[in-house]
Structure formats: structure tokens, C-alpha cells
Amino acid sequence: MKKLKVKALVSIGMLSSIAYVLMLLNFPIPPFPSFLMIDFSDIPALIAALIFGPAAGILVELFKNILDYFLTGSATGVPVGHIANFIAGITFILPTVYFYEKLKSKKGMTFALVNGTVVMAILMSVLNYFVILPAYTFFLNAPAMSAVETRQLIVTAILPFNIVKGLFISLVFMLLFARMQTWIGKQTAYRSI
């Protein structure tokens, strides 16, 4: 049991470091505003959650954002974007892991990733409307957007961006999962012993 805990802690640390490096390799997608960037840093968190459980995935999401905030900083000077990235990550990986645990197969993983994408896109739209965009307005002393402008930004940019981001992550993860499924299954089996 102690050996498993050490393996989990070391793995979480390594996956957090990989996630941080992947977070640095972000890129915009032309039709969306430049502050919305896609990166593949949720993939190591998803692997951690599949092998060691949801708490491990949450820790990888937390550590990668802490590392990025302290080592890279924030363009705005406040960690609102990092908090939003953390929330987006966990709202993607938790439903994905939950559904995959119910349907352990490649089709099950595809279904789980689609559900994770939908949950992330919807929850992030709601949180952007009520919490994240108002937090940026508050901390940056920026002029507040009207409710109509906020809704328009969410419907035309944030919601479709999160769907596209989830689909990109899902596509890359499925390419990895096709090769790693057996290994992930063995690692998960050791966890339940």
C-alpha cells in the first residue's frame, strides 16, 4: 500500500510537470478572441484521474496552474485566468472519468470525452457569465460589459471555443488512448488491490 502511495505521488508530480510544459505550448484559433488559447495540458490530468482516481486529476490541474502562475505569471496580474483554467480542466476530466468508469471500452471513452466536453462548455459558459468575466471587470477596474454584450461574447466565443477545445483534446487523447488503453487498465487494476 505504501509503495502505491509513493508511486501515485511521484506520478502526480511528473504528470503535473508535463501538464505545465503542455500549458506553455498554447495557441489561439483564428475565429476566436486572442485571449482564448488551446493547450493540451488537460491530457496528463485525465491520465492521472483514470489511473489514480479523480483526486489525482484534480491535483494535476491544480499544480499545473500554480506552476504556470508563479513561473510564467499572468498577463493581467491576477490569477482569474488560472482559476478559470483549473475549473475548466476539472469540469472536463471529472465527467469523462465518471462515464468511462461505467463504460470501459474505446466507445465508452469516446462517449465519456463527448460528455466531458459538453459539461465543460456549458458550465464554463455559466461561470463566465456570473463569475469569471465579472471578476476580470472587478480586478482590472475595467468598464463592465452590459448583459447583452456578455451574453453575446459567451454565445459567439466562449461556448464554441470550449466545444472546439474539448474536441481537440478528445481527438489527441483518443490517439494516445488507443495505444495506452491496456496499460491504463493494468495501472488501474493495481490501484484497486
From TrEMBL:
Specify the superkingdom. Answer: Bacteria
What keywords appear on the UniProt entry?
A: Cell membrane, Membrane, Transmembrane, Transmembrane helix, Transport
Q: Where is the signal peptide?
A: none
Looking up InterPro entries in the UniProt record yields: ECF_trnsprt_substrate-spec, RibU
User: One MF term from GO for this chain?
Assistant: riboflavin transmembrane transporter activity
Query: Which sequence ranges are marked TM in the entry?
Result: 6-25, 45-63, 83-100, 112-133, 153-177
Which GO cellular component does the record give, naming just one? plasma membrane
Which subcellular locations apply to this protein?
Answer: Cell membrane
Look up and give the membrane topology term.
Answer: Multi-pass membrane protein
Q: Which family does it belong to?
A: Belongs to the prokaryotic riboflavin transporter (P-RFT) (TC 2.A.87) family.
Function per UniProt: Probably a riboflavin-binding protein that interacts with the energy-coupling factor (ECF) ABC-transporter complex.
Q: What is this protein called?
A: Riboflavin transporter
This chain's source organism reads: Bacillus canaveralius
